[in-house]
Structure formats: structure tokens, C-alpha cells
């Protein structure tokens, strides 16, 4: 290697160390993601806790494959993020998706605090919103699609159960597309913590729109900002990036009308699930997966169907955002 080449490599490594919490060369990319990166084409990151801990097999596999297809149909490249046997993957092939979907809750729910443990011990992990953000940012991805983010749990003012997702959104400049957070959470307090952490929150819709509550389109909590168009969202994210803010943008997309579950119906079920979790003393990282399962059972799969449909819709919106953002960035 020439001296110049060596120096270039050294300075690239220095740059990587300087700007990323993780070196990009520690990541394994799928072929299509690698190609998209080379051509500066838009890539959309996807989390994998939703596959391992959020849905049962085989619905989780079907969802994981379909959501990737929707992203491709909308012109972007999907990058499902996960840790397989200690390797960080950005973009999985079908057999890796299959393994992850089958491993399910036997794999580790991996948020930022779990990353080092899962990687060092060569374990397999589904990455949460926070874990996925760390790896997607290291991979240079700008847009990330999920179903629902974690938040402040009810009674969080006593338990301090505040999802690492909220803190990550405050320190990682990614645009995260979601359907709000479930009413298993305290949505008002979730918004307060996001504001404290400097996260820009906008909801697709007209002035006065509420933060969506995952299964329901409304939560009773007003969104701090609204975006009537995809172009508006892309402009916000682009400006966030230009300003060099280290914080992220949360884009809330209400579940499509035809798949929404009325609050009057779902809230009762959520209350029962919360009461059961309290009785069984379910805490920490087990809380969200437990509640999701309880709700899916109590609604006889209706909540699972809604969950899947809102992810598909978010994938479409997220890809459109990624496409517009790529045009602005060129
Ligand atoms: N909400 C869902 N489905 C999910 C999750 C949240 O509707 O699968 C997952 C996401 O990966 C999210 C994580 O990042 O749960 C939050 O977990 P906790 O509440 O333990 O922070
Ligand atoms: Mn928690």
C-alpha cells in the first residue's frame, strides 16, 4: 500500500471514529444495501425486535418480508437491522430473516445498553428502536421505519420505566417513522421526555392533529407540529441534518382509518393487560412484549392485524420521505 493510500485509510478510520459511535467496518451489509450505499440511493432501516418480540411466528416472518417488499416498490432499499451470532447486520437475506423470526423471544431484545453484551458474547438479538438507531446511524442511513416506539410507561413517574428509545432519539440524528406510541404508555409524559431531549415531533396531517396512539388515530394529546405533506417532512429532516443537530426527528403517521381500532374498545383491553402485568410483577424489558401478547390474545388477533397494517403504511410513507430526502441531499 502506498503511503498516500495508508494515510487515506488512517484518516478515514479517524473520521469514522470521530463521527460514529461504531465503526462502519464492523457492520455486515446485504448486497442490495451495499449497492444502494455506493450509488447514494435511499435506504430505509427497519428494526427487528418487532420480529423477535413483537409478533408471533409465522406472522412476524410474513410481515418482515412484506414490509421489505413495500419499501422496494416505493423506490427505496430496505435494511432490516439485527445481530446474528454477534455480527451486526444492516440488511438481512431471506434465510437470516427466517432464523430471526423462528428464534423469536429466545433471542435477545437489544437496546443500546445490550449491544456490547450481545456482540461480545456472539449472541443473536432483535434490535429495538434504540439499538437499531445506533447501528443504522453508523451505517449512514437517514430514515428508519417502525410500528410503535417505546415511551414513558404509565406510572413511569414512580417506576422510572422510560424507554431508551426516547433518549436515543435525542442523541442520534435519524428520522424515525412510527404510528405514535400505544396507549399502554403515558403519551403526555412521553411527549414531555421527547421535548426535554430535543426531539422534533411532527404528525402527518393538518393543523391541530393529535399524536396518534398506534391502534387508534387519536390520543387526546396535541402534536407539537404537523406535516401536511411528505415534502414538508423531508424539508424538516434535511434542515435538521444541515444544522448538524445530533438529535432525531419523530414522524408520527396515524393508522389508516380502515384498520384503526376504536379507543373505547382497545382501552379496556389495555387496562386489563396492564392490571395483569402489575399482578404478575412484569417489569423492565419484559413489559412491552408481555402487554403486546396479552392484547393480541384478548382481541383475538385484531390488534396483530392492525399492527401489521400500520407497519405497511409507515413503510410506504417512510420510503417516500427517504426518496425526497435523497433528492434534497444530492
Ligand atoms: N411497540 C410495538 N411493538 C414493538 C415494540 C414497541 O408496538 O415491538 C418494541 C420496539 O422495538 C421498541 C421496544 O423499541 O419495543 C421498546 O421496548 P421498551 O418499552 O422496553 O423500551
Ligand atoms: Mn422499559
Automatic annotation (TrEMBL):
Protein name as catalogued: Pseudouridine-metabolizing bifunctional protein
Lineage, top ranks: Eukaryota, Fungi, Dikarya, Ascomycota, Taphrinomycotina
Amino acid at each position: 500500500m502506498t503511503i498516500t493510500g495508508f494515510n487515506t485509510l488512517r484518516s478515514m478510520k479517524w473520521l469514522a471514529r470521530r463521527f460514529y459511535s461504531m465503526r462502519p467496518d464492523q457492520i455486515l451489509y446485504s448486497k442490495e444495501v451495499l449497492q444502494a450505499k455506493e450509488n447514494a440511493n435511499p435506504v430505509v432501516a427497519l428494526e427487528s425486535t418487532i420480529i423477535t418480540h413483537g409478533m408471533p411466528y409465522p406472522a412476524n416472518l410474513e410481515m418482515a418480508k412484506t414490509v421489505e417488499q413495500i419499501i422496494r416498490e416505493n423506490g427505496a432499499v430496505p435494511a432490516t437491522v439485527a445481530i446474528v451470532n454477534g455480527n451486526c447486520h444492516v440488511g438481512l437475506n431471506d434465510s437470516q430473516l427466517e432464523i430471526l423470526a423462528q428464534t423469536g423471544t429466545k433471542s435477545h431484545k437489544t437496546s443500546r445498553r445490550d449491544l456490547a453484551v450481545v456482540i461480545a458474547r456472539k449472541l443473536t438479538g432483535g434490535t429495538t428502536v434504540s439499538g437499531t438507531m445506533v447501528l443504522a446511524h453508523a451505517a449512514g442511513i437517514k430514515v428508519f421505519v417502525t410500528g410503535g416506539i417505546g415511551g414513558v410507561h404509565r406510572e413511569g413517574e414512580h417506576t422510572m420505566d422510560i424507554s431508551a428509545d426516547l433518549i436515543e432519539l435525542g442523541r442520534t440524528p435519524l428520522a424515525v417513522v412510527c404510528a405514535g406510541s400505544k396507549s399502554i404508555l403515558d403519551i403526555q409524559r412521553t411527549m414531555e421526555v421527547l421535548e426535554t431531549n430535543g426531539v422534533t415531533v411532527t404528525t402527518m396531517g393538518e393543523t391541530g392533529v393529535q399524536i396518534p396512539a398506534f391502534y387508534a388515530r387519536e390520543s387526546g394529546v396535541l402534536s407539537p407540529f404537523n406535516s401536511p405533506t411528505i415534502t414538508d417532512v423531508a424539508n424538516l429532516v434535511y434542515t435538521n441534518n444541515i444544522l448538524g443537530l445530533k438529535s432525531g426527528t419523530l414522524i408520527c403517521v396515524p393508522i389508516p382509518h380502515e384498520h384503526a381500532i376504536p379507543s373505547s374498545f382497545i382501552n379496556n383491553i389495555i387496562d386489563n393487560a396492564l392490571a395483569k402485568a402489575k399482578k404478575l410483577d412484569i417489569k423492565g424489558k419484559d413489559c412491552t412484549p408481555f402487554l403486546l401478547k396479552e392484547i393480541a390474545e384478548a382481541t383475538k388477533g385484531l390488534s396483530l392485524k392492525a399492527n401489521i397494517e400500520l407497519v405497511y403504511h409507515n413503510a410506504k410513507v417512510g420510503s417516500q420521505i427517504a426518496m425526497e430526502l435523497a433528492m434534497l441531499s444530492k
